[in-house]
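Dear colleagues,

As part of the handover before I leave the project, I'm documenting each prediction I ran so the next person doesn't have to rerun anything. This entry is a single chain, and its sequence is reproduced below.
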Amino acid sequence: VFVELPKFKAANIREKKLMILWLRFMTEINESVEQVSEDLLKNKKIGEAVKYLEQGAYTKKQLNAYDRYRDKIMTEISALSDAVRMGLTKGEAKGEAEREKLKAEKEKLATALEKEKAEKALLLSRIAELEQNTKK
């Protein structure tokens, strides 16, 4: 790798640090490197470049195995997502049915209470009527 450093001028400290990281990337990363420095991976663009290098180093067989593995993972994620969605739908339907059942019970109790109140009022009026008749 050949870099003309005089043409690669940093305008501020941030750019200077970035320049140093890229220079480290170009000098430190080669086919014998197994672990990439965390400093390099922290930078999004350099991390992306490392991923491209890793992918470029894979054999066709490794790439195919990785694709099959990734497809299995995506299929499992999709199946789990579908199962969760179905479970939520069933749970919502069950909850709705339970709510309707409770609503019907509440209405039944309210009707019974109103009937009881009416009967009580009728009994109280009869008692009052009887008390008046007994006083005469």
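The chain has four helices and no strands. The helical segments are 13-28, 38-42, 44-57, 60-135.

All the best with the project,
I.
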